[in-house]
Amino acid sequence: MKRRAALALLVLFGVACRPAGEGASGVAADPLAEPRALVEQGRYDEALAVLGDAADAEALFLVGRAWAGKARTAPLPAPAPGGSTAGLLLKDEERRALDAFERAVAMRPDHAGAHLAIAALLTPYALERAAAERAALARARRSRRPPEPPPRVASGPDAGVERVLREYGSAVQGDPASLEAALAGVAALIHLVGVLVERPGSSYEEAHVETTRRVVDAARRRRVGTLVLVSALGADPGAANRYWRTKGEGEAVVRASGLAFTVLRVPLLLGRGTEAAAALGRRLRRGRAVLLGGGRTLQQPLDVDDLARAALAAAAPGAATGRTLELVGPVALAERELVARAAGLVGRRCRIRSVPTGLVRLALALRQRLAGPGFSTDALEVLTTDTRVDPAPAAKALGLVLTGLDDMLRESLAPGARA
Prior knowledge:
This protein has 419 residues and is of the alpha/beta class. 48% of the residues lie in helices and 10% in strands.
């Protein structure tokens, strides 16, 4: 089976590497200079022979790079008799690379290069799994039978989009020098990071502005060709709301970077593995939904796979033109109608209960004064602001056919979706 192109919210074209040592300038010689040079030259077997039983994070990272290099020309493994998941089977070389990268991260959690390498290695499998899940749902609708269990990568590594995003987030939060080194040879980078609910050590300013500044600085020094920033509807550096203001400030950092860029502003995300899908599933299982203001806020959810496809399209060579696109789903409807529609699709009943928004706002204002970071009035405003945007311009600009709302909901609630 021909493996489809890597699609996720992180795109790396090229091989991450670290700079050679400075032995010639009088600094102690780099003991890994030789195997690093061999990896750069594509002499992977020789590099592995020199590295032997690697005992530190940087050496393990080079071991992983060598095995990942060998994997590029290795054949796909044959599926088990009667199986049909060849595209979800890791090559032996990929397993060895993943093991080395994961051991490097275990020894040095801030090793950005290893985190990015894991994300790049697993991205094609995340795409294959998403495509297989979508095909299984389509077959189930045609046959009126329950969907097949979601496909797994053989021997079970977590190869979903969520894992890719976690690894990318760890890289961005990691050692700045390691992040910069990991971007060597990268042609396009998609940056998605953010928080709606602040936690100690994870503020809006840190997540939306400072993290973006670190990524932009590293990308400029490494001459990354294209940067795609996934932002939020309502982003505005002049907004009173701190969530929207810091999202807007992050966009401003990208616009002033001198890099070719595209900004994608997105709404609520639905689809397997999203927070919104998990919350919706819990409500339907309980048979009740407690909604702010009775659920009358208009939502226009976007399928997470559509976001992935859009980000990849924007990252393609020559596609970034300094645009800001509002990428939304095809239908806007009240949150209570969204819950009712989901319940109807799975044959359940779900009672709607209302919580007065004003009362919640007052309670949150008091809580913020007494307890500090957490769910805030800013987050409340984001969740209770209507979304109604024309989906056609962004979809046309990126060549997308948007996933319909019912298909989005079916996939969000399919067996195996996160609880």
